[in-house]
Amino acid sequence: MSNRRKGKAWLLSATAAILITTAACSSNNNSNASTSTASPSTDASAAAPEGTKDAQAEINLKAYAEPVTVTIGATVGAGINYPEGESVDDNIHTRLNKEMLNIEYKNKFVVEASKLSEKINLAIASDDLPDVLLVGTEQMQKMIKNDQLADLSQVYDQYASAELKRNLEYQNRVSFVPAETDGKLYGIPAPKDYGNSIPVMYIRQDWLDALGLKPPKTMDELTAVAKAFVESDPDKNGQKDTFAISLESGMNTLAMDAIASAFGAYPSIMVKDASGQIVYGSTQPEMKEALKKMQELYKLGAFDPEFGIKDYAVTVEKIMAGKVGILFGAFWNPLYPLKQNLENDPNAKWNAYPIPTLDGGAPVPKALPFTNEWIVVRKAFEHPEAIVKSMNLWTDMFISSKPELFPEAQKRWYEAIGSTHKGLEAHNYARPFFFDSPFGNLEVGRELRAYHESNDESKLVSAKAKDVFTNQIKPGGLQAWAMEKMYYEAEAVLDGYKELVYPAYVGASTPTMLSKGPTLGKLESETFVNIIMGASIDTFDAFVEKYHKLGGDDILKEINTQK
C-alpha cells in the first residue's frame, strides 16, 4: 500500500464477521447516520477479558430469588412472527427469561416497527420511559443531556459474562465510544455483523468462461472485463442487452465504495489526513480519480444508463433476470438476489472474489460501524443489572459456542428454531433486544470450511455451525448453494481483508450537520451522478469549493474541536 493512502485513510487491521438472518433482509445501501472509529482489531477468537471470571465469583449471574419486572418498548410488524400460542406479550424469550432468570418482561407500549422512533421521541419528551429501550445515537445523546439514563459502567463490568464482553468489546471497545460521556457508560452496544457494509465482488463465472476471461484483480482488468460483458454477448442470446456492473442511485453504494477504495478514496465518511486532522472523504483528491474511472466505465456501457434514478430494488431485478455480470455486494447477496437468478437460469454460475485494486495488491475496503443502536436503561430503574443478565442469557442461547451459564437455554433455542419456530426469525423479538456477535459468522465460516475441506463433521463445534450445516446446507437445493457460496467463498473473501477504513468520527450530528446536511448531501449526490454520466471531471473541484463554503468547513471545525 502506498504511503499516500496510509496518510489519507484511517486503517484498521481486521478479521471478518457476519450474521445471516438479519442482514439478508437489509438494504444493500450503507447507512451514514451514525459513524464511529475503531482501533486495530483484536482477534475474534481472543480469550475473554482477564479477570472477568474472578471479578464475578461472588456475583450471582443467574436467577433472582424474587421476580424482577422490567418494562420495555416492543414492536410488531415486519420480521416479527410468532408461532401458535405465542404473542408479543408471551413468547419463547419472555418465558426463558422468566424461567432462567426470574425476570418478567412487560410491554409498556407496543407499536408498529415503522413508528417506533416516533414513539421513543415522545417518551423522551414526556419523560415517560420504559425501564429499557433500544435507541440510536441522537436519541441516546438527547437522553444523556436530559439526565434520563442510568450509568451502566459498574453493572456492565460486574454482571456481563466473559462471553458477552468478548463479543461487545470487539475491536478495542469501539462500539462503546458513542455511549461514554465523562467517564460514564450510558448505553450497552447492540452490535450486528461487521461484514454488512464491506464489498465482495460477485461475478458471473459462466460469462468469464464463455469469453475466455479471468476474474479481474486490477482496475484495468475490471475495465476490460466490463467492456467484454457489454460488447461480446456473454449470455449468447444474440443481443446487446447486458450490463457489466450493477450500480444504483445514492452515494452509499457498495459498487461506488469498491471502485473508490482502489484509489484510496472513501466517500461519504470522515477520514484522517496525513496530519491527523479529520477531513471529508468525498472531497479528497483521490475521489476525483475514482469518479474519473466510473465515468470511463459509464461511457463504455458498464452501468445501466439510468442508474441515477433507480434504487436497489430496481437494479437487482436485472441481476435476477440475468442481465448483469458483476455485483459489488454484501456477504449475504447469494441469498438475494443471486439465488433468484439461479431460479430463473439454473446454468448461471456466480463466484465471489476480493474487490480489485490499482495494482492487484491487497484491497483496503471501506467499512461502516457494526453498531448503531444501544441498549439504555431508565435512570430510576431499581435493577439495571437485570438487563445485563438477560444479555448474558441471549449470548449463551444464540452466540456462544460453549455456553457456560445457560447451556439448557441454547439447547432449547436451537430445538425451537429447527421445529416450532422454524422460518419465523424469532431472534427479532429477543429480550431485551436482539444483538449479534460482530465476528460470530467468521468463526462459523471457519468451522464450515474446515468441515468442507476434510469431510469431518467433528470440525463443526458450535451449535450455530451445526445448525447451518444440518438445516441449511445438508438438505441441498438452492438454499444450500446460497449458504455454501456465503460461507465457503464470500466469508473467505472477507476473512482475507486485513485492513479496513472505518469512519474517523463517532459522535452525534453537529449543529451544522443537522442544519446543512441535507443540502450538502444533495449537492454531492447530484455532482457525482453528473460526473459519472459525462460532466467535466473538473466539476469535482467546483463541488469541493462549494461544499466547504456551504457548511463543510463549519462541520470539520465542529468535529475537530471535539477531539
TrEMBL record:
Annotated region (Disordered), positions in chain: 27-52
Signal recorded as keyword: yes
Manganese is among the record's keywords: no
Pfam families: SBP_bac_8 (PF13416)
Gene3D superfamilies: Periplasmic binding protein-like II
Keywords: Signal
Family matches, as PROSITE patterns: PROKAR_LIPOPROTEIN
InterPro entries: Bact_solute-bd_prot1 (IPR050490), SBP (IPR006059)
Stretches with biased composition (Low complexity): 27-48
Signal peptide start-end: 1-26
Record-given protein name: Extracellular solute-binding protein
Organism listed in the record: Cohnella hashimotonis
